[in-house]
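[audit] Reproducing an earlier prediction to check determinism. Same input, same settings, fresh worker. If the tokens differ from the archived copy the diff job will pick it up downstream; this log only records the rerun itself.
[audit] input (125 residues):
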Amino acid sequence: MPFTATIREHFDAAHRLPDYDGLCANLHGHRWEVEVEVQQLGGAASVKSMIIDFKELKQILNEEVLTFMDHSYLNDLIPDPTAENITGWIVRQLQKRMADIPNRTFALSRVRLYESPTTYVEWRG
């Protein structure tokens, strides 16, 4: 079984859900938590070195996601900012950046976005 490496960061952002019949149609905010997991490529049972330096993974997340989302109004970025659509946007941003890394030994395997401490949406690659 390949190894995985995961980081978890947070951002604060507001949104509203258009065409939603409920309180979430109103402007409101969350402290979102995002987990990003990468999996080693090749399926080896052990790793001779790191899958990815956590510092590098955090930098990618910050540059491609958090700088756009932290303290923002998500509707300006994503027209229908449900947790699912926000997660999809995050996945696309990360995959685009990771595809440009030469000789990478990992692939994006999971993104989990917490809307609250007890609710989340998860994408698995």
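[audit] rerun output stored. Observation attached for the diff report: The CA atoms of residues 3 and 47 lie 8 Å apart.
[audit] end
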